[in-house]
Specification:
Keywords: Glycoprotein, Immunity, Inflammatory response, Innate immunity, Leucine-rich repeat, Membrane, Receptor, Repeat, Signal, Transmembrane, Transmembrane helix
Radius of gyration: 47 Å
Main location: membrane
Helix content: 10-25%
Shape: elongated
Oligomer: single chain
GO biological process, one term: inflammatory response
Number of helices: 18
CATH class of one domain: Alpha Beta
CATH topology of one domain: Rossmann fold
InterPro entries: Leu-rich_rpt (IPR001611), Leu-rich_rpt_typical-subtyp (IPR003591), LRR_dom_sf (IPR032675), TIR_dom (IPR000157), Toll_tir_struct_dom_sf (IPR035897)
Largest sheet: 17 strands, parallel
Membrane topology: Single-pass type I membrane protein
Length: 953
């Protein structure tokens, strides 16, 4: 009651102190917690109208993303009029079909607009009016068939216009609509239904340099000679019907990249009739299948220029290249690309024997199966080659000295093959190599000479192979290596010197291996340089808390990932596990089924900024008070789905810099607002899928979430009540919590004062009465009472003897022999002999009183001071006075004055009502005769009936 009173008083204070302002939450959007009110995402919402989605966003919004809202079909006029600062607007991947003409009114600062992947079939002529700063517009993948006249006339700042994947057919209409766009640089019309570039008397903007018209149905260009005179990048690929003669007289002098893949153009004839500069044409997919066609091309190129930058020959079906094929070409000083062909081998690049100046050679997506040794007597060396790529082939083996002819390459890509054999000297001679990609192969072993020449290597990627052991000296010469990726292998351990040499290592990826422990002895080589360590999805687990920290000397480590240890997680987090990691900024512990987090588990992580514990723990784990006490710099904490049932200040109260808190999918039914208010920097709170109850215990939380101007409560207005999903948490009925608040407080105060006053009096006057009533009620409640009453009719004992243990000698030597012996046949109940073992003592007393015809109280001064004896006489006197049964016999062992008995009210009442017996002591004249008379009177009293004959006897 006191707690509820405190809550109600707090509510009153809050209502008086907090102004009625709009709560910091949004119906359908989430603010990026790092954007400070400028970036919002509205994803997977159920609204059909744009206004309903964005109506509650603040005017400070600059970046707005509205994607994957499948019911969204309409953008009504002035939907964004209250968001005048929007600069970047994404409304892609929805099902938009209709946009009103004034939909983007007042967005004068808008710079980019993405309407891709919708179902827009028609644009209003005034749709883009009033957007003077728009420089990027994408309408990709809609159903547009035509454009209204002058649709883009107001977009004088537009630089990029993307209209690909529509159903546009009229190029003249397009040309006219963009002719006034004086800043347009890129126009993308790919994947439409254009058949010609014929147009009315307009020109493309002088600023336009990039034009994509791929995948249309062009059969002619049909344009003026100067129409493409300023274009630098022109893509006409996949216009299958486009003939060579379509380029007759067309000015292409400014074009520095032209794609003609999958057209009907004969490139040799094209070069003969075109004024394009040699080497600016991409010859990929132009049907150059054999030496004859390639030689013819090279001869034509050489007639036009002495050297060219690039030679791209992808997708031509080339199978063989002889040593003299490209010797007819002019000098190539840039790229040679033979990807997506069908060569049988590279022949150590012998077909490039006279092209010694190329800088990059690419042969990807081919069917290469082997890289042979290239250390021969007549080997041609390509000393200018800096990059070599054989990705996406079927290479099984790389032989020794496979790259001896390319000694100066800096980047080698052998990834995504099936390399199972890498000769120990395969990389011999590559002393300038800086980046090596060997990921996604079938390598099982690395040797200490494999990388002996790569002392300049900075990045080594060996991810997703089948390596199980790292042998001694494997990386010994890699003193400059910065990034080592061994993730996705089967590594079980490192030999003692397996990581020696990695003196500059900064980022080490070991995720997805079979490591069972973290060997601290291996870290000493790079303990001063390592910043990132990824150990996700290994077999690491602990069964004892007494584990020495494996990270003790990694003083510069800033990013540590320990997520998802297989098969059952870490299970236990040792107390000192993170000792020494004072520079750690990010820690990942998700999916680990930890059963216990020690209160000092994170004490060493004083510099931590980001911590994720999502699904890290066994459901129902209790976070100990102070577990985050030293994380003073933590800004982002994710504790989703870890079974938290009590969000308390003792646990979270020390996170004074916490900015973002994700509590999704936990079990709290209520949250203490004091705990939230102890996080002064909190700006983002995500509590989706938490079963908060809509009761008075959460009224403070409701009020806090509605009127807190600083903390974004994610989807507050969509938050359901539990278990009543139809009701919402933000507006559940709280009237019952405020009804007659003043009267309630008055009455509760009055009752409290009355109880404090009356309780001591009742305790003094009615203590035994109430205690007796309690025991009787308890016996009755457990059906003991009924059993006792049934037994009364056929009593088990003649008398129950109530006495103090100090008088036990008299009972055993005098009372027992004279009542159960000496010719008497009485059956007595004694507590030390007849009480039932294991039963509550109170139940035994009640049973004894009601199972005996009489109760004999052996009264002495010790008896009067005994609490249990008092209870026994209380029970017997109850039968005497309230049930009118003559069941109580008092036997005084010693003389007790009336003054000493004055405080024992029940005893005095019995003595006034009943005659009692006094035991004759040794001071009598004839004690033997007196004692015989005593026993005779006691036996007579015991034989009398239990029902009183008269009111007084």
């Amino acid at each position: 009651m006191a707690s509820l009173t405190h809550q109600l008083l707090s509510i009153t204070a809050v209502l008086c102190a907090v102004p009625l302002i709009t709560g910091y939450s949004f119906n359908n959007c989430i603010e990026d917690p790092q954007s400070y009110g400028t970036s919002f995402k509205c994803v997977n919402r159920k609204e059909k109208n744009m206004s309903a989605i964005v109506h509650d966003l603040p005017s400070s919004a600059i970046n707005l993303t509205i994607v994957k809202n499948t019911p969204l079909q309409h953008i009504s006029g002035k939907s964004f009029v209250h968001l005048p600062k929007i600069q970047h607007l994404r409304i892609d991947h929805n099902l938009l079909s209709r946009i009103d003409g004034s939909a983007f009114q007042n967005l004068h600062q808008l710079k980019s607009l993405n309407l891709s992947f919708n179902n827009i079939s028609e644009l209003s002529p005034s749709l883009f009016e009033g957007l003077p700063n728009l420089n990027f517009l994408s309408l990709t993948n809609n159903t547009l068939k035509q454009l209204p006249k002058n649709i883009f006339s107001d977009l004088l700042s537009l630089e990029t216009l993307i209209l690909r994947q529509n159903f546009l057919t009229n190029f003249s209409e397009i040309a006219e609509s963009v002719s006034l766009l004086i800043n347009l640089r890129t126009l993308d019309l790919c994947c439409n239904s254009l058949t010609t570039l014929n147009h009315s008397n307009v020109s493309l903007p002088k600023s336009l340099t990039t034009l994509y018209i791929c995948r249309n149905n062009l059969f002619t260009l049909g344009c003026k000679q100067s129409f493409l005179g300023r274009i630098e990048v022109l893509d006409l690929s996949y216009n299958f019907k486009l003939p060579t003669m379509a380029f007759q007289g067309v000015d292409l002098r400014q074009v520095n990249y032209l794609r003609l893949r999958s057209t009907n153009v004969n490139v040799v004839e094209f070069l003969n009739i075109s004024n394009i500069r040699a080497g600016h044409v991409d010859f990929s997919g132009t049907g150059l299948k054999n030496d004859t066609l390639l030689i013819e091309l090279c001869t034509m190129l050489k007639m036009k220029a002495m050297e060219i930058s690039n030679m791209r020959l992808c997708c031509n079906g080339i199978r063989n290249l002889t040593t003299h094929t490209l010797s007819y070409c002019p000098k190539i000083k840039g790229i040679v690309d033979l990807s997506r062909n069908e060569p049988k081998g590279t022949q150590c690049l012998n077909f490039l024997n006279k092209q010694k100046y190329i800088k990059k050679f690419t042969s990807e997506h081919n069917h290469l199966t082997n890289l042979p040794s290239c250390k021969t007597k007549n080997m041609v060396y390509f000393k200018h080659l800096e990059e070599l790529s054989y990705r996406y082939n079927r290479i099984l083996s790389v032989n020794s000295y496979a790259f001896y002819h390319t000694p100066n390459i800096k980047m080698l890509k052998l990834n995504i093959n099936t390399i199972a054999f890498l000769d120990r000297k395969a990389l011999k001679g590559l002393k300038r190599l800086e980046t090596l990609r060997l990921d996604n192969n079938l390598l099982t072993d690395l040797f200490n000479v494999t990388f002996e020449d790569q002392f300049r290597l900075q990045t080594l990627n060996l991810r997703n192979n089948r390596i199980s052991v790292i042998f001694n000296g494997t990386f010994f010469n890699l003193n400059n290596l910065i990034i080592l990726d061994l993730g996705g292998n089967k590594i079980t351990y490192f030999e003692k010197s397996g990581l020696d040499g990695l003196k500059s290592l900064s980022k080490f990826y070991l995720d997805g291996n079979n490591l069972k422990r973290i060997d601290t002895s291996l870290h000493h080589v790079f303990q001063d340089t390592l910043t990132v360590l990824d150990l996700q999805s290994n077999l690491i687990h602990f069964s004892s808390e007494n584990i020495y920290s494996p990270f003790m000397n990694l003083r510069n480590l800033s990013d540590l990932k320990l997520d998802g240890q297989r098969p059952y997680g870490l299970t236990l987090l040792p107390r000192n596990f993170f000792r020494g990691l004072h520079s750690l900024k990010s820690l990942y512990l998700t999916n680990n089924r930890i059963s216990h987090l020690a209160p000092d588990a994170f004490d060493e992580l004083t510099g931590l900024h980001f911590l994720t514990l999502d699904s890290c723990c066994i459901d129902g784990i209790q976070l100990q008070p102070g577990v985050f006490r030293n994380l003073k710099n933590l800004t982002i904490l994710a504790v989703e789905n870890i079974g938290i049932r009590n969000f308390s200040k003792e646990v979270f109260g020390n996170l004074t810099k916490l900015h973002t808190l994700q509590l999704n999918r936990n079990g709290m039914q209520s949250i203490n607002v004091d705990a939230l208010e102890s996080l002064p920097e909190l700006r983002y709170l995500d509590m989706r899928n938490i079963p908060l109850s809509c009761t008075c215990m959460n009224i403070l939380l409701q009020n806090w979430s509605l009127y807190n101007p600083n903390v974004q409560f994610v989807y507050l207005y969509d938050f359901p009540c539990t278990p009543h999903e139809k009701h919402k948490f933000y507006n559940f009925d709280t009237k019952v919590c405020y009804i007659d608040l003043g009267e309630y407080l008055f009455l509760s105060t009055t009752v409290a004062i009355f109880l404090f006053t009356v309780t001591p009096l009742l305790y003094v006057k009615l203590y035994w009465k109430m205690k007796y009533g309690y025991y009787v009620f308890r016996s009755w409640f457990s059906e003991q009472w009924r059993r006792i009453r049934e037994e009364e009719e056929n009593c088990k004992y003649d008398a129950f003897i109530s006495y103090n243990s100090s008088d036990e000698e008299w009972v055993m030597e005098q009372l027992l022999p004279n009542l159960e012996g000496n010719g008497s046949s009485f059956k007595l109940c004694l507590h030390h002999r007849d009480f039932e073992l294991g039963r509550y003592i109170v139940d035994n007393i009640v049973s004894a009183v009601y199972s005996s015809r009489k109760t004999i109280c052996v009264v002495s001064r010790n008896f009067l001071q005994s609490e249990w004896c008092s209870l026994e006489i209380q029970l017997a006197s109850y039968r005497l006075f309230d049930e009118h049964r003559d069941v109580l016999l008092l036997v005084f062992l010693e003389s007790i004055s009336e003054r000493q008995l004055s405080s024992y009210h029940r005893m005095r009442k019995v003595m006034l009502r009943k005659t009692y017996l006094q035991w004759p002591g040794s001071d009598c004249t004839d004690p033997t005769q007196a004692q015989d008379l005593f026993w005779s009177q006691l036996r007579t009293a015991m034989r009398t009936g239990s029902r009183l004959q008269t009111e007084e006897n």
